[in-house]
Structures are given as structure tokens and as C-alpha cells.
Amino acid sequence: RYCNMQTRAIAGLGASKLSKLSSYTLVAIAKHNLFNRFKFYGFLDKFEDFCLKWSDKYSKPFKSVYESTKITRSRPKISELDDSDLLMLKNIQKLDIELYRSARDNCIRS
Question: Which of 8, 17, 25, 83 meets the CB 3.0–4.6 Å disulfide criterion with 13?
Fold first, then answer.
């Protein structure tokens, strides 16, 4: 149910349709949408840079672009997970990881 949620969201397809698509097709749709339909996308580790660029492009003050309201304090840090948990998470989220790597590579080339 919670597998590859970013890929599913960016692909823009309902959950019932997703089960009928191969992993390859789902990632291909998500990549197409991300690279051709989104004006902006960014990464959490560069989130402030992304917000500044977005606010500059649309002449909106930075504060109105981002306000941290959803913080999960109980989520364990990666360093607190054992190897088997990390492997399980990587397996469950493999399409999201592939999409992230493609997006990161695309930003580096741009």
C-alpha cells in the first residue's frame, strides 16, 4: 500500500490502474511527467535553494512558499536502522529510488 508512493503520485495514475502496470512502465510514466510536465522539482537536501528559486521565479516571498508543519519526530534515523531493515526498505521503495536517481542525474546535466 505504501510502496513507491512518489512514483505513483508523479505518474498521476490511480492506485487501481497502477497494479496493472509493470514497474518499468510506471517508472517511465513518472519520469516523463517529471521531466516534461513539472516546471520545477527539487530535493530535500537542497530544499531551501529550491524554495528560493521558486519564490524568485513567481515573485512570491520565501515564507509563503514553505512553512514546516508536518514533522515526524518518532521516525527513526537511517543510522538507527539495521541492515535487514534498510534492505527491506530499499526493496519496497525501489521504484522511488530509481526515479530519484534519474531526477538527480537530470538536475546535474541541466
Answer: 17
In angstroms, the first-to-last Cα distance of the chain is 34
| Predicted TM-score (pTM) of this structure | 0.76
Q: Is the Cβ–Cβ distance between 39 and 20 less than 8 Å?
A: no
The angle subtended at Cα 38 by Cα 35 and Cα 40, nearest 5°, is: 100
Largest Cα–Cα separation, the chain: 46
pLDDT in tens, 77-88: 889 999 999 999
- Phi, psi at residue 42, to the nearest 5°? -150, -175
